[in-house]
Amino acid sequence: MSLNYGVTVIACLIPVTLLWYAGVLSGRWAAGLAIGSSLVVPALLYRSSRSWQLMLYYYFFPQHLPLNRRALSANEDENG
């Protein structure tokens, strides 16, 4: 989920803040857009961000994939 919020901050909240700072948006419009996008964008990106999270996890830990596991000896279990 933190990946989802990171994308929201970078893709939505920073541009709104910069537009407010440049004077393109008023304070009320910027606040409304920031609040609205911080509620809507994570919900819209939930499925994608879950996929990105799994992709990153298995990129760094490919041995955790079922087909990449090594054979266990008789005195070992799945936990180590």
Q: What radius of gyration results from the CA coordinates?
A: 21 Å
Count every helix, treating DSSP H or I runs of 4 or more residues as helices: 3
Helix content: 55-70%
List the domain count as a whole number: 1
Sequence of secondary-structure elements: HHH
Structural class of the helices, strands and pairings? mainly alpha
Beta-strand percentage range? under 5%
Give the overall shape, derived from the CA principal axes.
Answer: rod-shaped
Write down how many β-strands occur, each being a DSSP E stretch of 2 or more residues.
Answer: 0
Major beta sheet, specifics?
none
Low-confidence stretches: none
Mean pLDDT: 88
> Between the first and last Cα atoms, what is the distance in angstroms?
28 Å
Written description of the protein model:
It contains three helices and no strands. It has 80 residues and is mainly alpha-helical. It has one domain. The longest helix has 20 residues, at 2-21. The two termini are 28 Å apart. 4% of the residues are buried. The mean pLDDT is 88.
Write the layout of secondary structure elements.
Layout: H1 2-21, H2 27-44, H3 46-60
Helix pairs in contact: 1-2
Key words describing this protein structure:
80 residues, mainly alpha, 3 helices, rod-shaped
